[in-house]
Structure formats: C-alpha cells, structure tokens
Specification:
The protein is built from 18 helices and ten strands. By secondary structure, the chain is an alpha+beta fold. It has one domain: Orthogonal Bundle (Cytochrome p450), CATH 1.10.630. The protein has a five-stranded mixed β-sheet with strand order 1-2-8-5-3. A three-stranded antiparallel β-sheet has the order 4-10-9. It has a two-stranded antiparallel ribbon with strand order 6-7. The longest helix is centred in the first third of the chain and has 20 residues. The termini are far apart. The structure holds protoporphyrin IX containing FE.
C-alpha cells in the first residue's frame, strides 16, 4: 500500500487511515530517504508492546555497525541529539533524574496560581480580539498558555518566547520531510542552537531560580552533564513543554465543538473535567506518534520481519482509537473510565510533563467554558487548517466567535 500520512486529507482526518491500517496492515512499512525502512504500528496491543520492548531503542547510535548517523548530517543537529528522549538507560535515567523533580505532581501543583493567571490574561486577549472579530483560539489562548509557563520555568526572558516558538514550529514541520527537511531546516537549526546558547550564557551571567540554573549547577558539579547535554535538555523541554499542550487545548476545544452533547455535559457538570481531559487526550491526540524506535536486533511483529537498525514508529493516535482496546473508540465520552490511553506514551520514556500538561489542560478548558457561554467556529468546519507535521497533531488556527 502507499502510505502517506502527510497528505492534506489525512492531516484533516487521519482516523479512517488509522482504522484501515489497524484492520488490514497493522505492521506496515515504507521506505524513507535518509532513515530507510520505517515500520508503523497501529494496534493498541502492538504499540504497548513496542514501547516496553527492550530490543527497541531510542538511540540509533547504539544499534552499532554502520547504523549510526550518515556523515553528511548537519553538525548543528548533534546539539539536539543528547537529550533523554534520544538516549537509552542508563544514560536516559541519568538525564531524566536531573529534571524529574521539577515535573512531579507536587511541584506542578505549586505552579497552579501561575497557570491560572496566564489563563485569565489570555482569556482577556481572546475576548478583546473576539470583539474586534478576530479571535483565534490557537494564537490568543492555546499556544500562549503553555508557552509562557515553560518559558518561565526555563528562565527564557519575556518577549523571547515567540522567537523560539517560530523555530520549534518550523523544526517540527520539517522533521518528517526526510532529506529535504534536513537541508531546508539547516539554517533554522543553527538559529535554534544560537538561541539556546544565548539562554545558557544569560544564565551564566546571572544565576536564577529556574531549571536552566539547576542544570548549569549540575554541569559545574563535574561529570554530571556536558554543555551539549544542557543544550539538548533545554531544547527538548522548551519544545515538548508547549508544542504538545497547545494541541491538547486546541484539538480538545474543536472536539467539544464537534460534539455538542459532550460539550453540554461538561458545561452542566464541570466536576468531570479530569476524565474529560483524559478523554480529549485519547480522542483528539495532541501527539500522533512517539519518537522513532530502532531495532537493536532483527525481530518479528505479527509475522513481519524487521531487520536490525530499521525504524519503528508507534502510532499512539491510532492505538487510542483501537476498538479492541476501547468501547465505542470513535465516540467522545467525557466520563470514560477506565481510560488507558497511550497519549503520553509508555515505559521509561513516558511523558515527563504529563502532570503539567494535565493541569494546564484542565484549568484552560474549564476557564474558557466558564468565560464564554457561546463558542462557535467562525469558518466552515471543512476549512479548518491543520499543521502539516505528522509528529504532533495540531491546528494552525481556530477562528471563533465568542459571547
Ligand atoms: C498534552 C501534552 C503532551 C503530550 C500529549 C505529550 C506526549 C508525550 C509522549 C507521547 C511522549 C513519549 C515519547 C516517546 O516515547 O518517544 C512524551 C515524552 C516526553 N514529554 Fe511529553 N507530552 C505532553 C506535554 C509535555 C510537557 C508539558 C512537557 C514538559 C516539559 C513534556 C516533556 C516530555 C519529555 C521531556 C519527554 C521525554 C521523556 C523521556 O524520554 O524520558 N511533555 N510526551
């Protein structure tokens, strides 16, 4: 079969394609320039198993024997390849443990007043823009909330966050475009490296009470962290800290508008917000696939032989709609419980930011519904624009009328 997840029709609605894959080609591959044969897993059971399989690794370099990076790979990219998500244990654990504390439910709870304040401020922006007839849920609300929180946690100076969002946005758009993406993105990548080096230099000049200062302390401690590791960590946390949650809020609100009964249910009983956000994670899939896994040895999944070094992509968005795992998988049920979705991944790389994302999502969606009794799409539903990346699933914009 010819699988093209980037096709605009698939971007607009990937679920029929995922249903087809689960049914007819649960373990299917395509050949991609640069990365080679790439396998896609779409069934819940296979995605779960893959994310727990020690034969699948996140660091391509550990496959060995010529399976590392090609020599011509832009050097600037190396600066981003030493993060916890591109490493395996024990190195992965070492990196993750340095920042884990900042993302525990308790620490995240202490950020609640900050999240509430940003949400309130952005709702004012949204309301003002609505009066002028130009409210955009993404630019005015869904994006600035997580962007502002992660920027503050990382000590990015106010006013600088829009610049790095522009860069991470482009990085994601190009990330799944193979060789062309690499070269088109080279300048952007170099700009990002410069930006993050400047964040580090800024913190070296003046220590502050934030995560980057904590990382630099760990670096100064001796062997705990190299400068490249600090850079990779900042990149990962800044990117993952906002390019995901924006889609929980954006896709989540669109899913509610698409399902007026569910929306009315949540309006009528806001105490269901916790299960509602879990269901929006499952149903609206802010992240469509995990990062690639590499086969450390040849293996078989459902009779398909996967050679050593080949790439495997677990499609968490497809798994989350698997009827074998969820009753009425294509129905949005805000009271669904239990809800064992894999929107945050699974295993050792399970999302570090899950407690933060959940808190931001719950506060933002509840406050939005409290503030506006009437929320409507300002454009026809089929004109809604989706981003072209297949890694995260997100809207370019969501024009609304609000009252
Ligand atoms: C709704 C929002 C979010 C979703 C759906 C999401 C989803 C995911 C998924 C699926 C993974 C696993 C990737 C893999 O196995 O390759 C992951 C990992 C990760 N996420 Fe999130 N994420 C969200 C928000 C956040 C936030 C707010 C942060 C904060 C910095 C964050 C930081 C991370 C990090 C650091 C990892 C890598 C963990 C590791 O390798 O051990 N995420 N996320």
């Amino acid at each position: 079969m010819h699988l093209n997840l980037s096709h605009p029709d698939v971007r607009a609605n990937p679920y029929p394609t995922y249903a087809y894959l689960r049914e007819h080609a649960p373990v299917t591959s395509i050949h991609r320039a640069v990365v080679g044969r790439t396998w896609y897993l779409s069934r819940y059971e296979d995605v779960m198993a893959a994310l727990r399989d020690p034969r699948l690794v996140n660091d391509r370099r550990s496959v060995g024997d010529g399976h590392g990076d090609p020599w011509w790979l832009p050097k600037a990219l190396n600066a981003f390849r030493n993060s916890m998500i591109t490493t395996d244990d024990p190195g992965h654990r070492r990196l993750r443990s340095l920042v884990q504390i900042a993302f525990t439910p308790r620490m995240v709870e202490s950020l609640r007043p900050q999240v509430e304040a940003v949400v309130a401020a952005q709702l004012d922006v949204l309301a003002a823009n609505a009066r002028a007839g130009k409210a955009d849920l993404i630019a005015d609300f869904a994006l600035p909330v997580p962007l502002s929180i992660i920027s503050t946690m990382m000590g990015v100076r106010p006013g600088k966050d829009a610049a790095f969002h522009g860069m991470t946005n482009r990085f994601l758009e190009l990330a799944d475009r193979g060789i062309a993406g690499l070269f088109l993105g080279a300048r952007n990548t170099m700009r990002m490296v410069r930006f993050f080096r400047e964040v580090i230099a800024d913190h070296r000049r003046e220590a502050r009470d934030d995560l980057v200062t904590a990382l630099l302390d760990a670096e100064a401690d001796g062997e705990r962290l190299s400068e490249d590791e600090v850079l990779s960590m900042i990149f990962l946390l800044l990117l993952a800290g906002h390019e995901t949650t924006v889609n929980l809020i954006g896709n989540g609100v669109l899913a509610l508008l698409d399902n007026p009964e569910a929306l009315a249910d949540l309006r009528g009983d806001p105490s269901i917000i916790d299960t509602a956000v879990e269901e929006l994670l499952r149903y609206a899939n802010p992240v469509e696939q995990t990062t690639p896994r590499y086969a450390k040895e040849a293996l078989e999944i459902r009779g398909q032989r996967i050679e050593r070094g080949e790439v495997i992509i677990p499609l968490v968005a497809a798994a989350n709609r698997d009827p074998e795992a969820f009753d009425d998988a294509d129905t949005l049920d805000l009271r669904r419980s239990p809800n064992r979705h894999v929107a945050f991944g699974l295993g050792v790389h399970y999302c570090l930011g899950a407690p933060l994302a959940r808190m931001e999502g719950r506060i933002a969606i509840r406050a939005l519904l409290d503030r506006f009794r009437d929320i409507r799409l300002k454009i026809p539903r089929d004109r809604v624009q989706w981003r072209s990346t297949t890694v995260v699933r997100g809207l370019r914009s969501l024009p609304l009328t609000l009252a």
